[in-house]
Amino acid sequence: MSKRVYILNGPNLNLLGRRQPEIYGYDTLDDVANFCGEVAKTVGIETDLRQSNWEGQIVDWIHEARDAAAGIIINPGALTHTSVAILDALNAFDGPVLEVHISNVHKRESFRHHSYVSLRADGVMAGFGVQGYSLAVLRMGELLKD
Ligand code: CA2
């Protein structure tokens, strides 16, 4: 049976492909779910992509992942830069964690340069557009290989 990986997305990422395409591109989150699912198959894992605008919901999904997922790929949106709660939840998760940012946060405002999640992440993708999610799925396949 293939290993399950949660792809968790934070606030406002439901707007992907519908606003600010110059920063985030034209693909929607449904597109991301679809191409990640296809890439996942090639590396023997399956993905479950979710999005919430609520910090507590993301914390709950990370707790759920402790029993239900082998790894987590997370784009926490703006919560990246503020949420100790998400960091604490990730610290209670035993599997690999990969952090994804569609934009290159290091080229943007200084408040986006710090990530609480990076204190736990095993790898970080930033500035690869939505392709960063597929690259993270490939890497996750490698990290979860038997
Ligand atoms: O680059 C990223 O993926 C970010 O995590 C996106 C967050 C931002 O706060 C982080 O600093 C970097 C913002 C997500 C908002 O997503 C939108 C997508 C399309 C249209 C409007 C917002």
Overview of this protein structure:
With 146 residues, this protein is α/β, with parallel strands linked by helices. It has a single domain (3-143), classed as Rossmann fold (3-Layer(aba) Sandwich). The protein is built from 5 helices and 5 strands; from the N terminus they run βααβαβαββα. The longest helix has 14 residues, at 29-42. The protein is globular and about 40 Å long. Bound molecules: ligand CA2. The site of ligand CA2 has 16 residues, from loops. Ligand CA2 binds at residues 12-13, 15-16, 19-20, 24, 75, 77-78, 80, 101-103, 105, 112.
CATH architecture: 3-Layer(aba) Sandwich
CATH topology: Rossmann fold
Gyration radius (Cα, Å) is 14 Å
Main beta-sheet strand count, sense and barrel state? 5 strands, parallel
Number of helices: 5
CATH superfamily heading: Dehydroquinase, class II
- Strand tally is 5
Q: Residue-averaged pLDDT, rounded?
A: 97
Q: What structural class do you assign from the helix and strand content? A: alpha/beta
The amount of helix comes to 25-40%
Sheet with the most strands: spatial strand order: 2-1-3-4-5
Number of domains: 1
Shape: globular
Bound molecules: ligand CA2
CATH class: Alpha Beta
Uncertain spans? none
Order of helices and strands: EHHEHEHEEH
- Beta content: 15-25%
Properties at a glance:
single chain; 146 residues; alpha/beta; Rossmann fold; 5 helices; 5 strands; globular; binds ligand CA2
